[in-house]
C-alpha cells in the first residue's frame, strides 16, 4: 500500500528540524515542522525520554509524528550533562563546560533518539557520535555544543563543518537514517 512520504516532526529546535529534514529528504521523505515543546520525563536514557514524549505528543495531536531527544555524555564527568544537555547549555553554557573540564579527560559522545508514533505502533531509533570536547570554541555552524565537539578521527569541531558534512556523521543523522529507511520500507504495518 502506498502511504504518505511526509512526516510531522515536533520540536522547538529549528536546527534539529533542518538536520532531520536534510537527511530524510535524501530518502524521499518530506518533514513538516510542528513547533511545540515535547514533554520530557527525567531519565538518563534518550530512548526512554522520546518514547514517553512520543506518547504524549500523539495523545495531543493524534497524527503520526516523530520526536527527538539528544544527550551529551562526558566520560570524565560521569556522563554529565547527559540528557540535561539543554539545561546545562542554558545555565553554565559552553564556557561552564570547558571550566568543568580543566585538567580532566575530554572524551564525550552524543546520543540521539527519534521516536515514531502512530497509535499503538511506536518505534525508537538511536544514533551515537563519539568524540571529545575541544579546549576552546571553534566554528560558527551548527548549534548547541557543536563549537566544542570534535568527532573522533577529525580535527574540526562540528561547528566548523557544513550541514552536509555534519549530517554525514552525526548522531542525529544516524538515528534519522534508521528511521527513514524503516519508514520507507512500509514497516509501519508491522505489529
Ligand atoms: P526539542 O524541542 O526537540 O526538545 P531541544 O533543543 O530542547 O529541542 P534536546 O533537549 O534534545 O532538544 O537538546 C538538548 C541540548 O543539547 C540542545 O539544546 C543543545 O544545546 C544540545 N544539542 C542537541 N543536539 C546537538 C547537536 O547535534 N550538536 C550540539 N549540541 C546539541
CATH architecture, by name, is Alpha-Beta Complex
Straight-line N-to-C gap: 16 Å
* Unreliable residue runs: none
What order do the SSEs take from the amino end to the carboxyl end, as H and E?
Answer: EHEHEEHHEEEHH
CATH class: Alpha Beta
Number of domains: 1
Radius of gyration: 17 Å
Q: Largest beta sheet, briefly?
A: 7 strands, mixed
Q: Work out the helicity level.
A: 25-40%
**How is the quaternary structure best described?**
single chain
The number of helical segments is 6
Average pLDDT confidence is 94
CATH topology name: Maf protein
Percent of residues in beta strands: 25-35%
Strand count:
7
Small-molecule binders here are: inosine 5'-triphosphate
| Shape by Cα distribution | globular
Helix and strand content put the structural class at: alpha/beta
What is this structure, in a nutshell?
With 191 residues, this protein is α/β, with parallel strands linked by helices.
Structure explained in plain terms:
It is a single chain. The chain is of the alpha/beta class and 191 residues long. It has one domain (6-189): Maf protein (Alpha-Beta Complex). It is 34% helix and 26% strand. Strands 1, 2, 3, 4, 5, 6 and 7 form a seven-stranded mixed β-sheet that branches. Helix 1 packs across helix 6 (171-184), helix 3 crosses helix 4 (93-100) and helix 5 crosses helix 6. The model has no long low-confidence stretch (mean pLDDT 94). Inosine 5'-triphosphate binds at residues 11-13, 16, 37-38, 68-70, 72, 85-86, 89, 142-146, 158, 170, 172.
Amino acid at each position: 500500500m502506498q502511504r504518505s512520504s511526509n512526516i510531522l516532526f515536533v520540536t522547538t529546535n529549528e536546527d534539529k528540524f533542518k538536520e532531520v529534514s536534510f537527511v530524510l529528504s535524501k530518502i524521499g521523505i518530506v518533514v513538516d515542522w510542528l513547533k511545540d515543546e515535547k514533554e520530557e520525563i527525567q531519565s538518563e536514557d534518550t530512548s526512554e525520554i522520546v518514547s514517553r514524549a512520543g506518547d504524549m505528543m500523539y495523545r495531543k495531536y493524534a497524527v503520526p509524528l516523530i520526536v527527538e531527544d539528544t544527550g551529551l555524555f562526558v566520560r570524565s564527568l560521569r556522563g554529565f550533562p547527559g540528557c540535561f544537555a539543554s539545561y546545562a547549555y542554558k545555565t553554565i553554557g559552553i564556557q561552564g563546560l570547558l571550566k568543568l573540564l580543566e585538567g580532566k579527560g575530554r572524551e564525550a559522545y552524543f546520543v540521539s533518539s527519534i521516536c515514531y508514533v502512530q497509535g499503538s505502533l511506536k518505534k525508537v531509533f538511536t544514533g551515537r557520535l563519539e568524540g571529545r570536547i575541544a579546549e576552546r570554541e571553534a566554528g560558527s555552524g551548527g548549534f548547541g555544543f557543536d563549537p566544542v565537539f570534535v568527532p573522533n578521527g577529525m580535527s574540526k569541531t562540528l561547528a566548523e563543518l557544513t550541514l552536509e558534512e555534519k549530517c554525514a556523521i552525526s548522531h542525529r543523522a544516524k538515528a534519522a537514517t534508521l528511521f527513514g529507511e524503516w519508514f520507507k520500507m512500509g514497516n509501519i504495518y508491522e505489529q
